[in-house]
Amino acid sequence: MSTAAIPTLTLGPRTHVLVLTGAGVSAESGVPTFRDAGGLWEGHRFEDVASPDAFRRDPLLVWRFYSRRRANMEGITPNPAHRALAALEARLGDRFLLATQNVDGLHSVAGNQRVLELHGALMMTRCSSCDRPPFEDRTVYRDGVAPMCGRCDATGKAALLRPHIVWFGEPLDGAHFEAIDRFMTAAAGDLVFLAIGTSGVVSPASWLVDDAARAGAATWLSNAEPPANAHHFAHAVMGKAGEILPTMLAA
Length: 251
Ligand code: OAD
Description:
By secondary structure, the protein is an alpha/beta fold. It is about 30% helix and about 20% strand. The chain has two domains: about 1-30 and about 80-120 and about 170-250, Rossmann fold, CATH 3.40.50; about 35-70 and about 125-165, SIR2/SIRT2 'Small Domain'. 2'-O-acetyl adenosine-5-diphosphoribose binds near residues 225 and 240.
């Protein structure tokens, strides 16, 4: 798509913008998406390594999967799509909210502050048993044994550490959806919903477009190819996020 064909979003002085991002927004930074390359890792479907069952069966395999993803973040930086979203938040302040399915942290690195990480954070770890708060952890666990929670060990109940990721079959943080509801209510019908780089197959994120439409939003999609829920959007702009967003979100 040529730049001339990319529409610029028109925002009024009270317009609220709710953005949902997926793996496609980080693709041009060099972070692989899930479904574009067949969704396999070492021959495993990623659903099979991103689940509580997989962790019970083989915690080291799961840690190797997330360790590889941690290691692959070395040298990865935000791309123009992330930067355009950070510039939009700088303009809109509290009238901006970003819900991301990505765990790579690149929106925060780009400068976004109003970010809800719906699926967790790659560089965080928590205990699989106790209520010790999640902590920053960039460790790459390569081989040997899966890491243990030092706090539980001290009480004599050995428990494994786990990635701070929402796995398939696990509930998302209800507080995130309460924040999204409050944001949509505050918009009072003057709302733009923009989904970027997501295949629209993983709920509840894929349902947000319908919630936003019910709240009166103009619904926009920016994606490399039509996602599964494309027909739920009123407007679509096809192409690479890093090429589209700087124009689409220009002041
Ligand atoms: P997917 O890999 O399912 O989809 C990525 C989407 O981005 C596809 O629709 C691509 O066409 C599009 N895309 C690729 N490159 C692009 C680019 N440069 N610009 C714009 N779009 C591009 O990723 P998600 O929809 O994010 O969950 O996947 C949702 C969830 O499924 C993930 O958060 C993850 C996975 O299981 C968990 O790990 C819990």
